[in-house]
Amino acid sequence: MSIDNNFFWYPALLFPAIPIMLLVFTNKYTALAMLIRKLHVMAQKDEIENLSVERIQILSGRLKLLKWMQTFSSISFLFNLITIFFGFIGLQDFALVFFIISVAFLIISMSLFIVESQQSHYALSLHIRDLEIYNKNKISTG
C-alpha cells in the first residue's frame, strides 16, 4: 500500500473530535440516568399515575443505544491512537488498516447517535401530546 506524507493529518483531525463525541454521549447518559433514577424513586413512593410500557421501553432502548455509542466511540478513539503510534514507528500499512477500522467504528457510533436522537425526539413528542391532552381537559372542565 502506498500512503502519502499527509496521511497522518487524518488521525490528528479525528483526535479531538472523538473525545468531544464521548463527552456529548456521557452528558446524554447522565441526563437519562438521572431521569431513570427519579422515576424509580417516584415509582417506589407511588407518585407515578401512569407510566406506559412504551415509555419504559423507549428509556431502556435509549440506554442500550447510549452504551453502544460510548463503546464504539471508545474503540474508535483507541484505534485512532494505535494509528498514530504505528505512524510514528514507521508501520504505515498497519496505521492505514487501524485508521480505516477507527473510521468504521466512528461511523457506527454516529449512526447509533442518529437512532438515539430519533427515539429521544419521539419520547418528547409523547410528552407534548400529554400536555395537549391535559390542556384540553383543563379548558373543558374550567
Low-confidence parts lasting 5 or more residues at pLDDT below 50?
A: none
Counting structural domains, the number is: 1
In which range does the helix fraction lie? Answer: over 70%
Mean pLDDT: 86
- Helix/strand order, N-terminal first: HHH
In DSSP terms, counting alpha (H) and pi (I) runs of 4 or more, how many helices? 3
What percentage of the residues does DSSP assign to strands (E)? under 5%
From the N-terminal CA to the C-terminal CA, the straight-line distance is: 75 Å
**Structure summary, number of beta strands:** 0
Instruction: Characterize the largest beta sheet: strand count, sense, and whether it forms a barrel.
Output: none
Q: Give the overall form.
A: elongated
Keywords:
mainly alpha; 86% helix; 0% strand
Explain this structure to me?
The chain has 142 residues and is mainly alpha-helical. 86% of the residues lie in helices and 0% in strands. It has helices spanning 9-44, 53-88, 92-141. It is elongated and about 75 Å long.
Question: What would you say about this model in short?
Answer:
This protein is an all-alpha fold and 142 residues long. The chain is 86% helix and 0% strand. The chain contains 3 helices and no strands.
Task: Please write out the topology.
Layout: H1 9-44, H2 53-88, H3 92-141
Helix pairs in contact: 1-2, 2-3
